[in-house]
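User: Sequence recovery, please. Input:
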């Protein structure tokens, strides 16, 4: 509506129809501030489905209108009338700010940890840098509280988007989620190699931890999903490799390092070959004795005897003693150096007798020679501390 003075001079327009249909490009919006602040009593306020309109005056949230067409008068603007004492009658001018708020839920808002954060894997004790991401849904329940507490000053004609709102909540989400994930992994004692099967439970814990913070701003957390908790690629491979090596036995690292050193010396002529490994290193650790055990665990992949000569066939089942590594004549049943049986197999945990590979019970006392994994059911050697298939402690 436009008014003219007696001289015909154009005066400032007063709005008599207030409406907002959303951005022309159809992009998501959350809050819109109407471009004018000058209205008249008797104006038509149109609020579409899924919207609310809030009148502000002097930074104070006043009258709120839901969907429908509203003719503005002192009767339905009680708080504004009380504040400015609007005179009675139509076409009475007054000033106020009008905010439109989108009340529909937006369910595909993304969240994610911008930086990896350190967490110790509870099962394998390795410190990992992990990331997490997912989605959540947001709905505004209390228009007055949300605009007053979170929006602040918005220029006339400006739109406040869901993305801007998400930036307000991102810091809160990340700090809470880090704590929830760490606490859950420790409480359940599960590895990050297994975490995919627990994402639903972790999502519920995260939603419970953050929903009260949304409530403080008049917002409702409609849903919350943790879609992935993953170490960076290199960290995941490190954890997988550790799991595989751990299944070979607790002393695997020490033995493997010894084998690496011996292999290097065997290829170094100046060091006198593998026979001089102990003297060359000044170690005196019985590396030759350790070699037999290492070869046994690694499946006899290297056919090197402790004296530097090549053994014929598999060291664990040929003429080489599986206990001390000494070469013995073909057909001997006991080692001529250490006196241990030449047959390689499982040692009975009860009587100590060595039994051939494949036997399920001790030939002397009948004790069971395998450990059945409580998780996957695989039968393991009784000397193993962890399952060779799934890594579960035995």
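Assistant: Recovered sequence (394 residues):
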């Amino acid at each position: 509506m436009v008014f003219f003075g007696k001289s015909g001079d154009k005066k400032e327009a007063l709005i008599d129809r207030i409406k907002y249909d959303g951005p022309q490009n159809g992009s998501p919006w959350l809050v819109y501030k109407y471009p004018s602040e000058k209205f008249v009593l008797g104006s038509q306020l149109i609020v579409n489905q899924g919207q609310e309109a809030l009148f502000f005056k002097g930074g104070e949230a006043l009258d709120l209108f839901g969907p429908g067409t509203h003719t503005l008068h002192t009767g339905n603007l009680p708080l504004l009338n009380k504040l400015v004492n609007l005179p009675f009658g139509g076409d009475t001018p007054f000033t106020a700010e009008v905010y439109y708020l989108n009340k529909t839920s937006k369910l595909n808002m993304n969240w994610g940890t911008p930086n990896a954060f350190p967490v110790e894997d509870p099962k394998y004790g390795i410190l990992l840098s992990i990331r997490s991401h997912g989605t959540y849904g947001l709905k505004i329940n209390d228009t007055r509280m949300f605009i007053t507490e979170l929006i602040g000053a918005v220029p006339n004609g400006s739109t406040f988007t869901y993305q801007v709102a998400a930036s307000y909540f991102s810091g809160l989400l990340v700090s809470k989620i880090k704590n929830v994930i760490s606490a859950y992994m420790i409480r359940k004692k599960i590895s990050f190699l297994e975490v995919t099967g627990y994402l639903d439970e972790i999502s519920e814990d995260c939603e419970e931890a953050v929903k009260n913070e949304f409530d403080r701003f008049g917002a409702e957390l409609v849903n919350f999903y943790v879609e992935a908790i993953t170490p960076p690629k290199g960290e995941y491979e490190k954890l997988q490799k550790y799991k595989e090596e751990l299944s070979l036995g607790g002393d695997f690292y020490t033995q493997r390092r010894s084998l690496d050193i011996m292999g290097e010396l065997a290829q170094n002529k100046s060091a006198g070959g593998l026979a001089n490994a102990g003297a060359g290193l000044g170690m005196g650790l019985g590396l030759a004795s350790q070699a037999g055990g290492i070869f046994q665990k690694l499946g006899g992949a290297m056919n090197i005897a402790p004296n530097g000569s090549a053994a014929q066939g598999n060291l664990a089942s040929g003429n080489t003693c599986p206990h001390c590594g000494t070469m013995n004549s073909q057909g001997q049943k006991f080692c001529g150096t250490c006196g241990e049986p030449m047959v390689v197999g499982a040692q009975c945990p009860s009587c100590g007798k060595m039994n051939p590979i494949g036997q399920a019970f001790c030939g002397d006392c009948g004790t069971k020679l395998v450990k059945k994994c409580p998780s996957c059911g695989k039968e393991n050697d009784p000397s193993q501390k962890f399952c060779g298939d799934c890594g579960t402690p035995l």
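The chain has four domains: 15-102, 106-237, 272-342, 343-394.
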